[in-house]
Write a structure and sequence with these properties.
Mean pLDDT: 83
Strand order of the largest sheet: 1-2
Low-confidence stretches: none
Radius of gyration: 29 Å
Helix content: over 70%
Largest sheet: 2 strands, antiparallel
Number of helices: 4
Strand content: 5-15%
Shape: elongated
Structural class: mainly alpha
Length: 109
């Protein structure tokens, strides 16, 4: 079994496999040269990150503002604890903004 696997490995490493690996290495080198020559390809990840930060900061701020619009209610007559009640319209807005955050995450990939 060991000698069979050694023979198979030797056959794999000779001839066609070495040619395929050298062709793949040539393709990778050509792709790296193209990326290094075009500055927009190098700066695209940074630009995408900045766009994501601006969009998600804005949407997260909107969620915070909407969450503070709930009506605080006491849990008991002498209780210090409070519970926020949200109207149906406010729940819709919160759901919409959370959906938009998920959608923008998919679009910004």
């Amino acid at each position: 079994l060991i000698s069979l696997s050694a023979v198979a490995f030797r056959l794999f490493c000779s001839g066609d496999a070495q040619i395929a690996v050298s062709k793949a290495a040539g393709c990778i080198e050509a792709a790296c040269e193209c990326i290094n020559q075009d500055l927009s390809l190098l700066s695209e990840p940074l630009i995408a990150l900045l766009i994501k930060i601006v969009v998600f900061t804005t949407l997260f701020g909107t969620i915070i503002l909407l969450a503070t619009c709930g009506a605080p209610k006491r849990l008991g007559p002498n209780s210090v604890r409070r519970h926020f009640e949200f109207s149906t319209e406010l729940r819709f807005y919160l759901t919409y903004v959370i959906f938009m955050m998920c959608w923008m995450e998919e679009l910004c990939r």
